[in-house]
Every structure is written in C-alpha cells, then in structure tokens.
Amino acid sequence: MKREIITTGDGSTTIHLPEWEEQYHSKHGAINEAKHVFIETGLYPLLEKHSLEKVKILEIGFGTGLNALITALENQKLQKEMQYVGIEAYPVTVAEALKMNYADELKQEEAEEVFKELHQIPWEEAKPITPTFTLTKRKQLFEEIQDQNEYDLIYFDAFGARVQPELWTVAIFEIMYKALKQEGILVTYSAKGSVRRAMQEVGFEVERLPGPPGKREMLRATKK
Predict the structure, then answer these.
(1) CB 134 within 8 Å of CB 127
(2) CB count, 10 Å around CB of 174?
(3) How much is the pLDDT for 155?
C-alpha cells in the first residue's frame, strides 16, 4: 500500500495512506494527539491513582514509534522502571521512520538519539533504550496476543474502525482486558459508541473524556 509523509496541524509529520484516506496520527497534530491521549489521559492518571515504581505498557500499533518516543522522554522526568511492548503487524521501515521530524519538533536533547534507537534495535528482543526505559517490539497480529495480567496501561492506537473495523470488536477488547492487570487502564483516541459498547461488554468501566485537538471526545477504560 502506498505511503506518503504529510505534515500535521502542529508541524509534526505522519504517514498518510491514500488508498484508505487514513493516516497513522491525527491530521490536527501528531505530537499533540500522542501527548493528550496517551500521556496526559493515560500515563499520568495511572500514576496518580497507583503508586507504581515499575510500569509496564502495551502499545497496540507501534507504527512510527511516536508514542514510544514521547513515553521514553517523559520517563526521563518520572524515573520509573518502565517496560514498553509495542505490537505491530506491518512495521514501517527504519528509513521511513527516520524521515519523521519528531526529534526536531519535540526540541528535547536526547530525542533524536532515542528515536533512532527505538527503530534500530532488533524485533522480538527486550532492549534498554535509556537507563529507565526498555522496549520490546513484537511483529504480531493483535488477535494473536496471549499475554495475561501483564500490563498496567494499554495504548490502543490501531487504525480507525472505518478502515479496520475488525480491530475494534468484542473479541479484540477481550484480549486487551485479559492482558491488563486489575485496575489497569486502556486509552484510545476513538470515541465511537460501538467501541465503547464493545469495551463494556467484556467488563471494562468506560469513561468519555475530552479528546485531543480536532476531536471532541476519546475513551478511557479501566479493568474492574
């Protein structure tokens, strides 16, 4: 499938798929979306609720590595022992990923070095990216995930239900529910009613919350 690099509303880049009229991040701002959905509405509320020194995160849709990059950089301040697992069935190439301008836009000293390391480490192996952040990239279909009671937090960042409805079903959210620890949190940019109902059907307690720029709402689900 053809992929094009485009610039989003906050100046950061993403990959656009013309055939689907879909992109890896919000056209209104890739970095702003990642920070709002996954850091401000996921990671920090988790840490406010639970006094965790070790945090294990599962990302559904590793994509360009933006969410992993922002999380690794944020953890430079938090200094938690963080294990991050990124699942991606169809990885972008290292060359494609390194065309993203995230390091320039984030304006953080270590951003470029960390971003390169995220993409250059081998798949299927746990590798330290910083002294406090270890990444494992797994090439895997989401329905093949078998982890149980492993994660404190899930970043659910799959392509939208309009183009891949099979990724937003009861069956997939049941896998997510099992993968989370009790009181674990899942956050996603989606606010579709069908997605919320699928989450509730498997046992999640679901909140509608203000969305990132360009999106009125998003969802946060807690395993009860």
Answers:
(1) yes
(2) 16
(3) 98
DSSP the chain: ---EEEE-TTS-EEEEETTTTEESS-TT-HHHHHIIIIIIIIIHHHHHHS--SEEEEEEE--TTSHHHHHHHHHHHHH--EEEEEEE-SSPPPHHHHTT--HHHHHT-TTHHHHHHHHHHSPTTSEEEEETTEEEEEE---GGG----S-EEEEEE-PPPTTT-GGGSSHHHHHHHHHHEEEEEEEEES---HHHHHHHHHTTEEEEEEE-STT-SEEEEEEE-
Taking domain 29-223, whether its CATH number is 3.40.50.720 is answered by no
CA dist., res. 220 & res. 192, Å (int): 12
**Mean pLDDT per 10-residue segment, the chain (224 residues):** 94 96 95 98 97 97 98 97 97 95 94 97 98 98 98 97 96 98 98 97 98 95 96
**C-alpha span between 43 and 68 (Å, rounded):** 12
The structural domains of the chain, with segments of one domain joined by +, span 29-223
Question: The whole model's pTM is what?
Answer: 0.97
- How many residues does the structure list for the chain? 224
For the chain, the straight-line distance linking the first and the last C-alpha, in angstroms and rounded, comes to 39
CB 16 within 8 A of CB 4: yes
